[in-house]
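Subject: for your reference before the review

Hello V.,

The reviewers asked for a structural picture of the protein, and I figured it would be easier to keep everything in one thread rather than splitting it across files. Below is the amino acid sequence we used in the manuscript, unchanged from the supplementary table.
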Amino acid sequence: MSAPRGKAASPFRQPKAVWAVAFACVISFMGIGLVDPILPALAESLDATPSQVSLLFSSYLIVTAVAMLFVGWVSSRIGAKRTLVTGLAVIVVFAALAGATGSINGIVGFRAGWGLGNALFIATSLAVIVASASGGFSGAIILYETALGLGIAVGPLLGGELGGISWRGPFFGVAALMAVALIATLAFVPDLPRPEKVTSPLAPLKALRHRGLLTMGIMALLYNWGFFTMLGYAPYPMELDAHELGLVFTGWGLLVAAFSVFFAPRLQARYGTAPVLYANLLGLAVVMAVIAAGVTDPTTVIVAVVVSGAFIGINNTLTTQAVMLVSPVERPVASSAYGFLRFIGGGLAPYVAGKLADATDLSVPFYLGAATFLLAVPVLASGHRLLRRAETDTGGTEQVAPALTPVGVRAATDAPPVVVAVAAHREAAAVVDAAARIALDTASPLEVVHVRRTAVVEEQAADTETDEQAKAAVTAHLDRLDGMGVAATGQILTGVGDHAAAGRALARHAAEVGARTVAVGRSPRGPLVQFADGSFTSALTHAATCTVVLVDPDAEPRPLTARSLTELRAEAR
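And here is what came back from the structure prediction:
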């Protein structure tokens, strides 16, 4: 796909609007991990039982779950920026109130309001970053993923440091930081156009009638039950102070972030979504069983919790991608329906765990968490065929795998075409023109494949372009090529999250049309990412039956092979 000439553009060279929302994302992703280090301190300071303190999670997540059903409707009525600003303002107010109250019931109630603001924010933040980014969406996605990782990793550390001063510190800290993010959003994020179609508030619930979406949603509910059981109750048997708990959960958060952003896509590309999820859920069940069996040994609990971060990072990424793959409805609607089920599981788990711990002992909630992880495996298996078909099929009436949509009229020639893959980027035209020279030299028609991807990060999904924008980009290429005397046609390749799946889909298409050559440009994500295992370019090169070349407007085309990919990876390092 296309890239700037010479050195790849930095993903961090973005407008102030993107930075404002990214900063707010960091604080938002801190939200859950921030309170973990202060759970024992809250119980002691407010004379509350662990089951009462666990309601901080339950009220927050259940309100978030219910609100997820309506945020799409709200955003379509008042616009993405107003929804984002409203969410930020609600978080500021209720986080401050939670810090100011003097009772556990007050904190639980104000955390519920915080959950409402969180739902409004997370449902629109990715879409706003993508819409506000300059120079293509890839840099914006990298920035969003960076914000996610930073928030997850730093949240417990900040919570531990502030909690070491007072249990009120994390709440006031979030309120202050979110107030800064609110001011920056108001100042720098422009008004964004409202969707032409108003989303029905009942659309997410109606979407759950689709078997694939319901199956993946139930699997996510069971997974989050186990996850939030651990998050809500693991701090107690560790017997650490707030600062030490912050360090433990920072280590956990670093693994969540690393495995979510870097390792999950590679495992998915190599083994497929479903097999990785099966192994991952079994791994989580084992970790939870270890915590349950060793609940009286703080060291065992600490090590198991940190290790679980790797499994959770993989699961968070791949579960969302699985939902988007099997869902036949619009991405925002699918995301809201999935978020509803996911957060319901997370919200109910701490409450039930508290009741079980009070009635029996602390190991029982963890054994139940292990059981929910195990139960998620057969639930996922019941939708295995749907997920497998979504990953491999390119036909059918409901296009959920990477799919090609023709644009323009196919060239009236039987000669093998040259295929060039480009994305929405300012240097796309230069890459297409370089591929056009190959087509002219070989007397071949040129097929322009515009790669349009749905970005998937955590539970959020956002289309990086509208259908009209993608079609306009292809049409502009075809008009320019017609003026150059090059016979050309176009395609739009739409994919969900997985770069490698899109690369394999293009390789299949090239084989079907008998392509002479497939050309790609340098990626704006940088050479290390472009030539890594699981990337679009790497998957295309390994799967293609014809020649694949890397084109550069200022250099000769470079053939890509398994060996040259290894060399390019080494050069990138």
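For the response letter, the relevant points are probably these. The longest helix spans residues 242-271. The CA atoms of residues 416 and 513 lie 7 Å apart.

Happy to draft the paragraph if you're swamped.

O.
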